[in-house]
């Protein structure tokens, strides 16, 4: 059946198994091996072990030489990752800065902008006051003021979140502002037309007059386009002037959509009422 000799090493970096078999040798060779006795087999095993040790030493040297280059490439990769802005929504403060920033600093930095936008929202009262006579004659218009304002904020919030997320992940940069604004504006037009159709059952259930229903359905696409346009443009505008879009873009969009949306609503209502031959 022949003789099977196995030599192995326990070194974790070099697990080499060599098998030497005399199976199939000529009869004369087998007899000579048998005649050699245990001393010949022992000498052969020692020689094989020495060869394996030499090979393991060579592998260890190669691994030791490869470790510095591997560590340097790992360090370079880590440095590259660290160089990528970690701030949320495209150009904000890095995560470590946010973690280490005090609550007082956040209150001051955000409170200033929110105060400014709160003062700007007072313009909605001025718009409502300017169309007070219209609201008195067509009270149904006032029913949908909260609905339209809320819809404008929702539509703009979706868009600004999408744009800021794309900026943060590096999918778009400052040079892509035309493409992004155009895409979001067209998307807003399609979304507004779809939502305009979905308001028909609501208007029917509430038994809203035809002229007011037409005004609301015409306002929905216009308001959605305005919200999408502002929400797409403001993050790029903030970065262009060195501002933080995560702090400024969303509240600025909400303020402008609220004021502009009311103006558009009442102006469209005036045009529709005029077309129906009604007095404003």
Strand count, sense and closure of the main sheet?
2 strands, antiparallel
Number of strands: 2
Distance between the termini: 112 Å
**Radius of gyration from CA coordinates:** 38 Å
Give the quaternary arrangement of the chains: single chain
Number of helices: 10
What fraction of residues sit in β-strands? under 5%
Helix-strand makeup class: mainly alpha
Shape: elongated
Considering DSSP H and I runs of 4 or more, what fraction of the residues is helical?
A: over 70%
Low-confidence parts = 1-36, 76-96
Major sheet strand order: 1-2
Describe the structure.
With 280 residues, this protein is an all-alpha fold. It is built from ten helices and two strands. It has helices spanning 27-36, 38-83, 95-100, 103-130, 132-137, 140-143, 145-168, 177-206, 210-240, 245-275, and strands at residues 4-7, 18-21. The protein has a two-stranded antiparallel sheet. Helix 7 packs antiparallel against helix 10 (245-275) and helix 9 packs antiparallel against helix 10 (245-275). The radius of gyration is 38 Å and the shape is elongated. The relative contact order is 0.10. Residues 1-36 and 76-96 have low confidence and may be disordered.
